[in-house]
Design goal:
There is one protein chain. The protein is of the alpha+beta class and about 475 residues long. It folds into 3 domains: about 5-15 and about 320-470, Dipeptide-binding Protein, domain 3; about 20-80 and about 225-300, Periplasmic binding protein-like II (D-Maltodextrin-Binding Protein, domain 2, 3-Layer(aba) Sandwich); about 105-220, Dipeptide-binding Protein, domain 1 (Alpha-Beta Complex), CATH 3.90.76.10. It is about 25% helix and about 20% strand. It contains 15 helices and 19 strands. It has helices at about 95-100, 145-160, 165-170, 195-200, 210, 215-220, 255-260, 275-280, 295-300, 335-345, 345-355, 375-385, 390-400, 430-445, 455-465, and strands spanning about 5-10, 20, 30-40, 45-50, 65-70, 105, 110-115, 120-125, 130-135, 175-180, 185-190, 235-240, 245-250, 265-270, 290, 325, 420-425, 450, 470. The strands form 5 sheets. The chain has a 6-stranded mixed sheet. Strands 1-16-19-17-18 form a 5-stranded mixed sheet. Helix 10 (about 335-345) packs antiparallel against helix 13 (about 390-400) and helix 11 packs antiparallel against helix 14 (about 430-445). The longest helix is centred in the last third of the chain and has 16 residues, at about 430-445. The two termini are about 15 Å apart. This is ABC transporter substrate-binding protein. Keywords: Signal. GO terms for molecular function: peptide transmembrane transporter activity.
C-alpha cells in the first residue's frame, strides 16, 4: 500500500460488530429472520435474511467447556503467521494479540494505555523516550524476552522499507535505539511526532531476535512464519482450510499478572459470508462473532446473542470504515473531484438502510465518539461535508466535470469518459449494501460508479497492488 497514494475519504462509520453466544457445534437447519426496519422519511422496509447452513466442520474437535469459537476476522484459508505481512493478513488469524504482543495495549473507552510488555514509558525530554520492560518476560520457547528484542524489532523498520512500520524512522522522527540493560531502552528522536509514536506503542508487535535475526528480507517481510514462536497467552496449534486453532500457553509470563485465560483452545472459524455466520450464531456454534448479523433486534429478543446495548445501535462502535480512493488514478487524483464525491455519498441511507441503525455516522474527521476531544470544530465546519446531491453537482460543474455526451454522467475536464468501480469483498453483506448506496448516490450526482464484489483474495490483491479505483 505504501507504493501508491491513497486518499482516505472519512465519514462512513461502519462499525465492527461484537456479539456473544454459546452452545454445541451442530449443523443448523435453514431459518428465516424477518426484521422491520424504519428508515428516513418514515418509509418502512422489511428485510428478509436467509440463514445459510453451516459448512462442514474441520476434522478435529475440542472439549466444548474449554473452547471458544470465534469468527468474522478470517476471510481466506489461514496462510501466514507473520505479524509483518503486508495488509496485516496475519491479524485475521489471531497471530497479533494471541501470539505476538505489543509494548502497551490501549483502551479506547477510557483513552488509557495499559502496560503490557512494557512496564512504563515516558518522555524524559522533548526528544528522548525512556522505555522500561517488565521483569521476567519470556518467549513461548522458554527464551527470555529482553530489550534486545525490542531494539531488533524497531530497527527492522529502519532496515527494510517494505515493512509497514518503516515510517517510524522516516516520518515519526526516530533516529536511534540504545539498550541500557535487559529491561531498559532509550529512544532518541528528531522533531518527534508524539501521537504517531503513541500509535506504534500499541500496534507494533515485538518479535524474537534469536529466531528472526538470520532471516532474509523476503522471509521477514512476506514469509509465512510457520510454527511461530511468540510471547503471548496462546500458541499456534494447527490449522485447516476453514479454521486456525490456538492453544493456551501454560507458561505465559502474564499468568501471574493478568490471570490465566479461561479458554484452553480458541478456534477461529472462516465463514464464507455473514449469512453463514448468522446461521452458526443461531445454532450456538459461535461464541464470539465479528460479523455483521442482519436482524439483530430479533436475534437479541430471542436470546441468540448478547449485545453491548439493549437497544439500537446494539453494538459499540469499534472502528471507522473508510472509503479509500486510489489517487494514482484519474479523476481520484483531483482534490476537487474527491470533495464533490464526499458530498454525493448518501451516508444517512448507509446508516438507516444498509445497517438498519446498528451504527452511527462518523464526523468528517472519521474519529469515533470516544476520540471527539481531538476534533477541531473550526476545521470541520470549514472543510467538512454532508450529503447534498445538488451541491455535489455544483462542485463537479465548477471543477470542469460536465456531461458532454448526454448519457447522464459527467466526463473529465479533458473530455475523457469516467467509469469507476467501488469494491468490497463478496460475502461482507453489510459492506456490499453500503457500496451499493455509494454507487447509486454517486450516480444520482452524475458520477458513473458501479459496485463490484470480488472474492476476498482478489480484493486484497487489488488493494495491495494498487489496481483498484475505490474500496471500503
Amino acid at each position: 500500500m505504501r507504493k501508491f497514494a491513497l486518499h482516505v475519504l472519512t465519514g462512513l462509520i461502519l462499525a465492527s460488530l461484537l456479539l456473544a453466544a454459546c452452545g454445541p457445534t451442530t449443523t443448523p437447519t435453514p431459518e428465516t429472520i424477518i426484521q422491520t426496519v424504519e428508515v428516513e422519511k418514515r418509509v418502512v422496509e422489511t428485510q428478509i435474511v436467509e440463514v445459510v447452513a453451516t459448512p462442514e466442520p474441520g476434522p478435529t474437535t475440542y472439549p466444548r467447556n474449554e473452547t471458544i469459537y470465534v469468527s468474522g476476522a478470517a476471510w481466506g484459508p489461514p496462510s501466514t503467521w507473520n505479524p509483518f505481512q503486508p495488509g496485516m493478513l496475519a491479524n485475521t488469524t489471531g497471530t497479533i494479540g494471541f501470539l505476538y504482543e505489543f509494548l502497551f495495549n490501549y483502551d479506547p473507552l477510557t483513552d488509557e494505555f495499559i502496560p503490557w510488555l512494557a512496564e512504563k514509558g515516558e518522555w524524559t525530554d522533548p526528544t528522548t523516550y525512556a522505555l522500561t520492560l517488565r521483569q521476567g518476560l519470556t518467549w513461548s520457547d522458554g527464551q527470555p524476552l529482553t530489550a534486545e528484542d525490542v531494539k531488533f524489532t524497531l530497527e527492522l523498520g529502519q532496515k527494510y522499507a517494505a515493512l509497514w512500520f518503516s515510517p517510524l524512522w522516516t516520518n515519526t522522527g526516530l533516529t536511534g535505539v540504545t539498550v541500557e540493560d535487559d529491561t531498559h531502552l532509550t529512544l532518541t528522536f528528531t522533531d518527534p511526532l508524539y501521537q504517531e509514536w503513541d500509535n506504534y506503542l500499541f500496534n507494533l508487535p515485538i518479535v524474537p531476535k534469536h529466531l528472526w535475526e538470520n532471516r532474509s528480507e523476503e522471509e521477514i517481510t512476506t514469509g509465512a512464519n510457520e510454527n511461530p514462536v511468540g510471547s503471548g497467552a496462546y500458541m499456534y496449534l494447527t490449522h485447516a482450510e476453514d479454521r486456525n486453532v490456538w492453544v493456551r500457553n501454560e507458561n505465559w509470563w502474564g499468568n501471574e499478572i493478568f490471570g490465566k485465560p479461561a479458554p484452553k483452545y480458541i478456534v477461529d472459524i472462516r465463514t464464507s459470508s455473514n449469512n453463514v455466520a448468522l446461521g452458526m450464531v443461531v445454532k450456538g456454534e459461535l461464541d464470539l462473532s465479528n460479523n455483521f448479523l442482519p436482524g439483530i433486534a430479533t436475534l437479541a429478543e430471542k436470546g441468540y446473542v448478547k449485545t453491548f446495548y439493549e437497544k439500537a445501535p446494539y453494538m459499540l462502535s469499534a472502528n471507522t470504515a473508510v472509503l479509500f480512493l486510489n489517487t494514482t488514478k484519474k479523476p481520484m487524483d483531483d482534490a476537487r473531484f474527491r470533495r464533490a464525491l464526499a458530498f454525493a455519498i448518501d451516508v444517512p441511507s448507509i446508516v438507516n438502510v444498509a445497517y438498519a441503525n446498528l451504527v452511527k455516522a462518523a464526523s468528517p474527521s472519521g474519529l469515533l465518539p470516544t476520540m471527539s476531544k481531538y476534533e477541531d470544530a473550526d476545521v470541520i465546519a470549514r472543510l467538512g461535508y454532508t450529503f447534498d446531491t445538488a451541491k455535489a453537482k455544483q462542485m463537479l460543474e465548477e471543477a470542469g466535470y460536465r456531461d458532454t455526451n448526454g448519457d447522464g454522467f459527467v466526463e473529465s475536464p479533458d473530455g475523457s469518459e469516467i467509469k469507476l468501480q467501488v469494491t468490497c469483498p463478496n460475502g461482507w453483506t453489510d459492506w456490499m449494501a453500503a457500496i451499493d448506496i455509494i454507487a447509486s448516490s454517486a450516480q444520482a450526482a452524475g458520477i458513473n460508479i458501479e459496485a463490484a464484489y470480488p472474492d476476498y483474495g482478489a480484493w486484497n490483491t487489488a488493494l495491495q497492488g494498487g489496481t483498484f479505483d475505490m474500496t471500503l
